[in-house]
Amino acid sequence: MQRRNPSTLLTAAILxxxxxxxxxxxxxxxxxxxxxxxxxxxxxxxxxxxxPPVMAWLLGNFDLLVPGAALFMVFQAALAFGSFIALxxxxxRPSWVAALVAAVAVSMPQLFLYQGIVWKDVLFADAGxxxxxxxxxxxxxxxxxxxxxGLIAGSAVxxxxxxxxxxxxxxxILCGAASLGWIANIYADRRNLRAAGIHAGTFLLGAFxxxxxxxxxLDMRLYESNGPxxxxxxxxxxxxxxAMKSDPALRFPAIEKKDPHLNTMxxxxxxxxxxxxxxxxxxxxxxxQSALLNSKPGVIAQSWRExxxxxxxxxxxxxxxxxxxxxxxxxxxxCVPYIVGVDGPRDxxxxxxxxxRYDDRDDALNNYGRIFVGTPVFxxxxxxxxxxxxxxxxxxxxxxxxxxxxxxxAGALLCAAxxxxxxxxxxxxxxxALDLWTLAAVFYASLHPAGLxxxxxxx
Length: 459
Known about the structure:
The chain is mainly alpha-helical. The chain has 23 helices and 2 strands. It has helices at residues 6-26, 33-44, 53-65, 70-88, 97-107, 109-112, 120-140, 145-165, 170-187, 193-219, 227-246, 253-258, 260-273, 286-293, 299-310, 312-328, 346-352, 360-372, 380-397, 400-417, 419-422, 432-447, 449-458; strands at 47-48, 222-224. Strands 1-2 form a two-stranded parallel ribbon. The longest helix has 27 residues, at 193-219. The protein is globular, with a radius of gyration of 23 Å.
């Protein structure tokens, strides 16, 4: 039996200890309004699709074993910490630097605190990380077909889970397929594009089929299915009001002619309450919300298309300002960098047997989180810069496992960029995956930093 290198054992031990400490500190999990609603739906077995049904389904199944969200928290934390530990085994003699990086990583809120928060964004990030870790191991074990295909299948399922947790997660499947095709091409000595295409295409088909079939199965339990349509209308109305505020001279004939009351409400109440920080400020006007809810069919969508196609400069300007809040979080306290405790709707909490919680331990965790507020640890821009540097270096070195990690970083940047179009709030968790995946890539690079350091010196 091959003995493990001491640096491997130390690094894995640090990560395992971090896993245990994180669970103990955050047990039995932190729940916000959305978390409580999803747990309530999971227990009832009936879902709506305002939030991803897969969250309610997972929470419901774990709740059957142990009431509450504790086992779900263990599951998502195991995906994250397990991925870090699995990355450690990719190199037979990892650098001692990796142990230091592991110690820093487990002390950061991205691992220590966030893994205790029951949010779809955390599940998305953890499933994505685990999926690309499987691809990295498939690259390492490529000459062993059974293990390779098992890991590829696991990666497809995990990336499908990520896509079920967040719609823009479909970008991860594309990045995973591209990475797998590149890895296959490397092992074919870059002469067999057919093999690369077969691997990439099969992966793409399998992951998307898993996502589509799972969605169909979950939809059978929906008690409300209009969530996506209403969410799109909310985004479009948010953009239209932003455009009206940015340029009051803009006119949208469809709204003015077909729904003059809505036009009046958007140009008065809407403009008064519009904020690029988040859409929720529009909820302060019941009159506006009533006008939006009772708007003439198709009028908002038609006007939004006119905005995008004929007033593109205004559209891009307001979208850039909204995205600035997401990426730069100018006032991070308004962008909810994290939560602790339990809070949610009273009736659902009573049904679940939950009580509002903010105890001494939550207070200690809150004080811990505050240490990092205002530092690069809670700066998406800093993590994006590190992601770009790591992506370039990994693509220059191009070891097979490097390609999987590079695909993950490309997915992180693409998913972050997608919020230019879809963002309606600056909540820090929306780009949490960017932070976690970059942290994982930096840890991976620290396992064998010598080759990357030489590449850096050449540049």
